[in-house]
């Protein structure tokens, strides 16, 4: 395949040069006032005198033209892909992405606060229970008090009727809508996705979610956005139904951290990353333990190999040949 492509690249300028030369010859014959025989002699003489330098120039021009057209077509395809799939998001230095690094649990607590006050009115987290927060961002008493603030439909009771009760640790986060139809009706036909696994459900999830939350801009010149949508270059298509939600001072952090747009975006993405991978810290710790144990086993195996086989590899055999 590489050989074929290289030959194709070499033959393309030659073919283009021959085509241009034929066009020049036809044009010269059609517009010349000299007899055909003299015209053919002139063309032949032009070929002889123009052949080497002229063909090289034509080949160079053809090669430049092919390169420019390739660059333009690549740029067109790239811009079309960006418009269809969304702008590629930057890579941010998340503190928990290191080999032995862990989550910032203060950031998880702040991110949960952002989710409760900003995101929970539209987005659900159906896979997370209140008890999952115990020991991660809150104490057990704090989580119990938080769960008791909601009302859960339970039952049936002994009389076969459903009843409401205060929430408890085993309950999941409440759903903002009763069903998908109600969610679409309240959001102009758009369905807010569940955020339990959002950082794993999207390509380059953490960077994508942060870029999406902080990437709202006015549409550039020539780009029109339908009413009810908002321009965001990181969203596929560039038009998203969710308005800009992270505004400076939208929440008031309990620990006094300034609630800037980027700070809220970082905290809520950290919280969503923990929700998608709550076992990350335990997994890294277990991996470190296995690497340490296997390293000791490797050293012991190497020592035993030297002890067992060194006497055979280092011994000297002398053969006394008797004449």
TrEMBL record:
InterPro entries assigned: Cyt_c-like_dom, Cyt_c-like_dom_sf, Cyt_c1, Cyt_c1_TM_anchor_C
One BP annotation, GO: mitochondrial electron transport, ubiquinol to cytochrome c
Residues reported in the UniProt entry to bind heme c: 119, 122-123, 242
UniProt subcellular location: Mitochondrion inner membrane
Cofactor section: heme c
Annotated membrane topology: Single-pass membrane protein
Keyword Glycoprotein among record annotations: no
Pfam families given in the database record: Cytochrom_C1 (PF02167)
Keywords: Electron transport, Heme, Iron, Membrane, Metal-binding, Mitochondrion, Mitochondrion inner membrane, Respiratory chain, Transmembrane, Transmembrane helix, Transport
Cofactor details (free text): Binds 1 heme c group covalently per subunit.
SUPFAM superfamilies (UniProt xref): Cytochrome c (SSF46626), Cytochrome c1 subunit of cytochrome bc1 complex (Ubiquinol-cytochrome c reductase), transmembrane anchor (SSF81496)
Gene3D superfamilies in the cross-refs: Cytochrome c-like domain (1.10.760.10), Cytochrome c1, transmembrane anchor, C-terminal (1.20.5.100)
Domain (Cytochrome c): residue spans on this chain: 106-258
A single Gene Ontology CC term: mitochondrial inner membrane
GO molecular function, one term: electron transfer activity
Family indicated by similarity: Belongs to the cytochrome c family.
Annotated protein name in UniProt: Cytochrome c1-1, heme protein, mitochondrial
Organism this protein belongs to: Anthurium amnicola
């Amino acid at each position: 395949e590489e050989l074929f492509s290289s030959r194709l690249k070499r033959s393309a300028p030659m073919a283009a040069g021959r085509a241009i030369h034929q066009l020049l010859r036809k044009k010269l014959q059609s517009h010349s006032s000299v007899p055909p025989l003299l015209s053919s002699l002139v063309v032949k003489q032009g070929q002889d005198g123009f052949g080497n330098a002229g063909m090289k120039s034509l080949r160079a021009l053809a090669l430049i033209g092919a390169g420019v057209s390739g660059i333009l077509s690549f740029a067109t395809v790239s811009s079309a892909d960006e418009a269809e799939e969304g702008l590629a998001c930057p890579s941010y230095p998340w503190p928990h992405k290191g080999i032995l690094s862990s989550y910032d649990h203060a950031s998880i607590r702040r991110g949960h606060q952002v989710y409760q006050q900003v995101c929970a009115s539209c987005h659900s987290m159906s896979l997370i229970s209140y008890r999952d927060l115990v020991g991660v961002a809150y104490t057990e008493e704090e989580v119990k008090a938080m769960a008791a603030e909601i009302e859960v439909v339970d039952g049936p009771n002994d009389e076969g009727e459903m009843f409401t009760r205060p929430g408890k640790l085993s309950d999941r986060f409440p759903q903002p809508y009763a069903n998908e139809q109600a969610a679409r009706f309240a959001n102009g036909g758009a369905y807010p996705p569940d955020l339990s696994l959002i950082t794993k459900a999207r390509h380059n999830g953490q960077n994508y979610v942060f870029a999406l939350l902080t990437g709202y801009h006015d549409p550039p010149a020539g780009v029109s956005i339908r009413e009810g949508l908002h321009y965001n270059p990181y969203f596929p298509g560039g038009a998203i139904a969710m308005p800009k939600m992270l505004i400076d001072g939208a929440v008031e952090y309990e620990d006094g951290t300034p609630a800037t747009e980027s700070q809220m975006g970082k905290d809520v993405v950290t919280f969503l990353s923990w929700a998608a991978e709550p076992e990350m810290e335990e997994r890294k710790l277990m991996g470190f333990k296995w690497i340490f144990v296997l390293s000791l086993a490797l050293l012991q195996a190497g020592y035993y190999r030297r002890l067992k086989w060194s006497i055979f590899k280092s011994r000297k055999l002398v053969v006394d040949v008797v004449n």
